[in-house]
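C-alpha cells for chain A. Residues wanted.
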C-alpha cells in the first residue's frame, strides 16, 4: 500500500470495463479486434468530406442511443454524453454493480473530454442564424459544456458522490482515471466511473485540425493511414469514442466478491510549458509525467513490462515520445514492448487515454499485447520495439500508459497485475 506522507492510501482496482469505439460497441469485442490487428479507420460518412484534404476518420458505426436511454432524452444531449452513458452501463454491468442506490453517496463519476458537446453549440448557432433566436433549443448551451458526460453518467445511474471533469486535451481520459484513482485512495469514494468521451467528427473540427497540418491525408487507403512510428507516417487520424473503467476500493470489491482485472497504482501529470501544439523537442514534460507516475506507483522503472504509447502517427510527436522513453529508461527501453492503440482506433482526443488505459487493463488481464499495425518502414529516430503488426503473448506485471497533447498536457498511468 502506498502512502502520502504519514497517511496510508487505499488500494484501487478495476472491476468493470466499457467502450464505444470505431472498432466495436462493446469492450471485449473492441479488445478482440485490437489483438487481431483490425483497423477502424474508414472514409467519413457523417458528412460529405470530398472537398477537404482529409476525408477519413475513426467513426463509431451502428450506435443507437435509444438502446441506453429514452429517445427524447438522447436528442437533447451531445453525442459524447450518449457515448458516456452507454460505456458506463457496460462497465457497471461488467462489474456486477446493478444497484448502487444503497451507497449512492459513495459512488462518483469523473470523465475527461477535450472539447465536450461542441456539436450542440454549433447546432444552436446554426438554428439562430437560419430560424431565429426563438427556435434555439434551451439545451444547446448547457449540453455543450465539457462536464456533461460526467453529469449524465451520474444522473443516469444515480452516482451522488464525488464528481469532476478533466479538460486537458489529449490527456483528459488518462488524467480522469488518475484523478478518480486518487479520489478513492483518499477516501472520497468507494466506486468511481472513470474515463473519457469525445464525439466530434464534424466539418468544423476536421477543417480545424487540417489547418494545423496535423491530419493524415492518406485518403485512398484509410486502414493504412494511422501508422505510428513508421517512417512514412504523415499525421494522425481524427476519431471518436468513449472508454469507461469502474474503479473500486479493494476491500469493497473483495467484500462483494467482484472479479478484479488489475490494480491502478500510479499517476503523473505535467506540462511542457513550451508551445500550444508542438511538443517539447527533448520530451522533458513527457519524461516528468512518466517518471512521476512510476514513482507514484512505487515500482522501479525496470519493472515496467509494457508501454501503451501516445503514438499518434505524427512525424514529430512519435519521434519525441521515443526519445523521452529512451531518456527515462536508458538501455532498458529497447527491451520494453510498446504499442499504439491509435494505429487501429485513431485519435479520439479526450477519450483516447481512457480507451488506451483499457488496452493496459486487458493486457494485464490476458497477458497479450496488441500490435502497432501499419508498421512497415523503420524510422531511424523510432528504433524501439513497437510490437509490429502481430499481437504478442508476454508476461507483463506492470504497464505504463502515455497521453501527451495540445497545450503541452501530459498524463501517464501505471497499472499492475492484482496481487493479494
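Reply:
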Amino acid at each position: 500500500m502506498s502512502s502520502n506522507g504519514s497517511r496510508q492510501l487505499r488500494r484501487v482496482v478495476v472491476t468493470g470495463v466499457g467502450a464505444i469505439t470505431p472498432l466495436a460497441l462493446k469492450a471485449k469485442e473492441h479488445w478482440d479486434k485490437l489483438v487481431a490487428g483490425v483497423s477502424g479507420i474508414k472514409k467519413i460518412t457523417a458528412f460529405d468530406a470530398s472537398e477537404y484534404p482529409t476525408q477519413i476518420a475513426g467513426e463509431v458505426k451502428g450506435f443507437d442511443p435509444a438502446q441506453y436511454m429514452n429517445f427524447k432524452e438522447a436528442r437533447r444531449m451531445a453525442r459524447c454524453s450518449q457515448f458516456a452513458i452507454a460505456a458506463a452501463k457496460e462497465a457497471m454491468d461488467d462489474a456486477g454493480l446493478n444497484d448502487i442506490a444503497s451507497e449512492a453517496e459513495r459512488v462518483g463519476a469523473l470523465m475527461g473530454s477535450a472539447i465536450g458537446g461542441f456539436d450542440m453549440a454549433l447546432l444552436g448557432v446554426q438554428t439562430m442564424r437560419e430560424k431565429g433566436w426563438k427556435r434555439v433549443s434551451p439545451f444547446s448551451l448547457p449540453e455543450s459544456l465539457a462536464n456533461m458526460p460526467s453529469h449524465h453518467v451520474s444522473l443516469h445511474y444515480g452516482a451522488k458522490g464525488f464528481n469532476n471533469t478533466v479538460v486537458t486535451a489529449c490527456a483528459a481520459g488518462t488524467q480522469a482515471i488518475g484523478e478518480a484513482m486518487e479520489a478513492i485512495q483518499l477516501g472520497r469514494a468507494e466506486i468511481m466511473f472513470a474515463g473519457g468521451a469525445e464525439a466530434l467528427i464534424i466539418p468544423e473540427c476536421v477543417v480545424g485540425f487540417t489547418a494545423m497540418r496535423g491530419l493524415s491525408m492518406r485518403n485512398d487507403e484509410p486502414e493504412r493511414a494511422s501508422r505510428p512510428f513508421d517512417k512514412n507516417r504523415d499525421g494522425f487520424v481524427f476519431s471518436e469514442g468513449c472508454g469507461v473503467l469502474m474503479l473500486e476500493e479493494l476491500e469493497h470489491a473483495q467484500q462483494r466478491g467482484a472479479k478484479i482485472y488489475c490494480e491502478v497504482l500510479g499517476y503523473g501529470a505535467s506540462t511542457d510549458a513550451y508551445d500550444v501544439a508542438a511538443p517539447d523537442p527533448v520530451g522533458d514534460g513527457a519524461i516528468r509525467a512518466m517518471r512521476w507516475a512510476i514513482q507514484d506507483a512505487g515500482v522501479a522503472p525496470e519493472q515496467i513490462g509494457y508501454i501503451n504509447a501516445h503514438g499518434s502517427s505524427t512525424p514529430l510527436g512519435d519521434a519525441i515520445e521515443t526519445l523521452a522513453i529512451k531518456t527515462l529508461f536508458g538501455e532498458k527501453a529497447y527491451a520494453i514492448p510498446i504499442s499504439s492503440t491509435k494505429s487501429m482506433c485513431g485519435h479520439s482526443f479526450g477519450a483516447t487515454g481512457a480507451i488506451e488505459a483499457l488496452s493496459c487493463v486487458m493486457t494485464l488481464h490476458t497477458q497479450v499485447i496488441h500490435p502497432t499495425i501499419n508498421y512497415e518502414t523503420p524510422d531511424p529516430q523510432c528504433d524501439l520495439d513497437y510490437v509490429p503488426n502481430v499481437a504478442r503473448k508476454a508476461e507483463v506485471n506492470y504497464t505504463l500508459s502515455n497521453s501527451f497533447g495540445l497545450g503541452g498536457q501530459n498524463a501517464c498511468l501505471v497499472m499492475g497485475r492484482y496481487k493479494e
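Residues 1-6 have pLDDT under 50 and may be disordered. The CA atoms of residues 274 and 280 lie 6 Å apart.
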